[in-house]
Amino acid sequence: SFAGAYVLQVKATDADDPTYGNSARVVYSILQGQPYFSIDPKTGVIRTALPNMDREVKEQYQVLIQAKDMGGQLGGLAGTTTVNITLTDVNDNPPRFPKSIFHLKVPESSHVGSAIGRIRAVDPDFGKNAEIEYNIVPGDGGNLFDITTDENTQEGVIRLKKPLDFETKKAYTFKVEASNLHLDHRFHSVGPFKDTATVKINVLDMDEPPVFSKPMYTMEVYEDTPVGTIIGAVTAQDLDAGSSSVRYFIDWKNDVDSYFTIDATEGTIATNELLDRESTAQYNFSIIASKVSNPLLTSKVNVIINVLDVNEFPPEISVPYETSVCENAKPGQVIQTVTAADKDLSPAGQRFSFRLSAEASNKPNFTVHDYRNNTAGIETRRNGYSRRQQELYFLPVVIEDSSYPVQSSTNTMTIRVCRCDSDGTILSCNVEAIFLPVGLSTGALIAILLCIVILLVIVVLYVALRRQKKKDTLMTSKEDIRDNVIHYDDEGGGEEDTQAFDIGALRNPKVIEDNKMRRDIKPDTLRFPRQRPPVEDNTDIRDFINQRLQENDVDPTAPPYDSLATYAYEGNGSVAESLSSIDSVTTEADQDYDYLSDWGPRFKILADMFGEEES
Known about the structure:
- The chain is mainly beta.
- It contains six helices and 31 strands.
- Helices cover 12% and strands 31% of the residues.
């Protein structure tokens, strides 16, 4: 503060009568507190006595004030009081850097936005008067750094705005200015309330990962490119002083990445599978580069591969058209407008052309008019059409694209002739309108056809049942007796039942055969049976069979199909004797089954059964 600045005013009171002399008149004086303060003896106003009292030197003062009256019989009475005076701070001191140059060392791997150092300017003021603002003076390297104020310590915090690279620049120098935020206009004449210092930053070299030549790579490849074709390459370098080699590999995340491979040393990218533009149009994956000297140091770059379309599909008519033409049509009428579509991803400006096929160009029925905007019109070339002569016309239209290689297809359009009124409105395109002038509808025709089908089914079933009934009658007839098949429905009584079937012929080969006519076939003329010569007792079985075989071969009454002829003859002189049941014993009591016990364990059960019956 300056000298004579007002501090405060004290006041003392006197109980004496102020009208009596000077007994009530008070005079003020300072007993303690000089030379810092002074007091007006009459008013008691205290003021500063020295200029530039510094709170930073001494903050509090104790001033002893005396108040004394001027008269009275007692010769003047006095009283004292103590006043504590505290100096309040004003912004009268500028900030000052303790040194003019600050040196900082910063690793090149420091992240953007991180604090890389602190500097501090000193301000002896207090409170808000000591608040300092730091700014970087524009100049060398200042655009790579930023500085802010720590509100707690009033330090300047230097932060990184851009990445550092030791190989690009190893040192930076710039100036920092410190100034007060709150200025007091009463002290402007004291001088500028700011200070400047120089900051020098040395960049420290660090082992860094490889750096790709581009932030992103974009490549193109045609679909159906042979496997192993190189489509591009990525490049990364180690910019450190040691300059280590780099290895490349694909960052595998899904199956899509398997469509490509990369050379670990050269960084060339090649196809690993056939690509289909219609299936996947673009591939997006990442390539990782690592240092051979330190594989943990890696960097990554994004690669986008666009698959280019190859013209492999011909254009076709976009939708199936139901085209019709009136019988009373005039030449040059447009009866249908057609468009085309291509399964290939058509590039911008793809054009389709339309024309008639070569074989249809010579026919004077219809023509194709290409509008050259990827559409075409089907026009008539005749003056009228007749449904009775031809109801349907087939028009082959050739559609061709403009890509490379050129693809084309022939699309056959069906044109139906219809009956129309004079305005061209279609009245009927049905087939029955031509052939049924009486007006039978389609439903009536279907009903008639259905009735015919039902009648045919009934006739077929009737004939089938008649045939089945006739067949059953022939098979079940009792008079149908054949040598090879005997059909009977009664159950015989076993060997003792001799009435069911006459087996006498089987018992005696010398029995006289009845000469009966064959009843299984209808003879043409009545023939008398031929007598067979009797069989001698000593006839050999071979001669007997041959004799009977010859008789049947030359017999004109024999049936024209295979039959079974039974010859009941048993030879003589067998060592094992007769095995036939003919002339065998007739009762089980005459049988002896003891020999079954001699046949072994397999016939034990059989031997026991017949042995028990015998016992």
